[in-house]
Amino acid sequence: MFEEGFFLPEEDRGVEVILSEHPEIRILWERRAQLAGPIEINGVNPILHVMLEGIVENQLNDPEMPEVRETVERLEKAGLSRHAARAAIANVFIYHFFPVLKEKKTFDRQKYIRQLGLLGKDFKKTGRNEPCPCGSGVKFKKCCASAVKDWQISPMLGRLTLGQGSYILGVDFPDIDSPLHPLYQLENRVHIARFLANQGDVEGAAQALKENIILAETHNQESWLSNALYDMLDLCLNYPQMSEEGLATIERLLHLVRDDAKGYLLCDRADIVARTGRVEEADRMFQDIFETMPAWHFGRYRYALHLSDTGRNDQAITVLQDLVAKKGRIDTETYQAAVDVLNDLMTG
Ligand SMILES: [Zn+2]
Ligand SMILES: [Zn+2]
């Protein structure tokens, strides 16, 4: 029913090419049949992104569609990468994709190919009542006028951003000069992992975060690596089945982080040990923390949480009351945290 050049077979060369360029999406692609509902992460559907770019990649190798190859070559000459050029074409293709898919219209291949000629051109001087530059014979305003704003070319076309806040802070990141910069992979995997964990696929989430650790190692970037390990630790702290991975991750982080960050990691380690049922061992770990860092009051607060988590509220209250009595002599963060938990424990 669809014309040639519109199909996307299950085992598909085009998709493979795109997945090698957006490798973080592979885990979602492989699991897309098992996942519930539409795969949408912060309003973006990464499967659709891969699909559209994959279709264009196939068209690019289709001897029946030489115009697609010619357009890619023309855009590459204008300074676009292969990925960005493909994405520019996908922006035109999407105008045909949904009407065909959802409204069962026939794919107007001739029109699509004519429209590819508009990519990279400037239409500021084209009057709305003039014939459309695509050559359809229809007035510009009734043909491509409203679409051409979506068809502007840029070297960043084809980038896939599923969120920000972990590796990419702010929309315009000055160091990123390519839509395939590894920072996008790293950031995207954080959101993919959250999405998978929310779907109950903790193993998938862990795999995504492991891929980030490997990527950081490959690039020999210490800040990426500690970031990736902390993401893994967060997952491990939230899911008891990840306890062993959590302990291994903490060991690695202890070698990477500054001294003032180590106390938190040691408390996390004790929490995980307690969670696996080794409560006495965890108690001893906290005693060790107090001996090595006697002035670090936040560790006492964490100990109180540990006591409460392991069913010893009376002891937790004593530790917190000691902290609260030190008002003015301990940091305000610890003081306030202790007051809040103490109130909860006394009223609960
Ligand atoms: Zn037109
Ligand atoms: Zn892309």
What report would you give on this structure?
This protein folds into four domains: 108 residues, no CATH class; 30 residues, no CATH class; 74 residues, no CATH class; 88 residues, Tetratricopeptide repeat domain (Serine Threonine Protein Phosphatase 5, Tetratricopeptide repeat, Alpha Horseshoe). It contains 15 helices and no strands. The model has no long low-confidence stretch (mean pLDDT 93). Bound molecules: zinc ion (ZN) (2 copies). One zinc ion (ZN) binds next to helix 3 and helix 5.
Notable characteristics:
single chain, mainly alpha, 348 residues, binds zinc ion
Question: Tally the helices: what do you get?
Answer: 15
Helix/sheet category: mainly alpha
**Which blocks of ≥5 consecutive residues have pLDDT under 50?**
none
| Helix-strand pattern | HHHHHHHHHHHHHHH
Summarize the structure.
Helices cover 60% and strands 0% of the residues.
How is this fold's topology laid out?
Blueprint: H1 13-21, H2 26-31, H3 46-60, H4 66-77, H5 82-103, H6 109-116, H7 182-198, H8 202-218, H9 222-238, H10 243-256, H11 259-275, H12 279-292, H13 297-309, H14 313-325, H15 332-347
Helix pairs in contact: 1-3, 3-5, 4-5, 7-8, 8-9, 9-10, 10-11, 11-12, 11-13, 13-14, 13-15, 14-15
Bound molecules: zinc ion (ZN) (2 copies).
One zinc ion binds next to helix 3 and helix 5.
Organism: Thermincola potens (strain JR)
Protein name: SEC-C motif domain protein
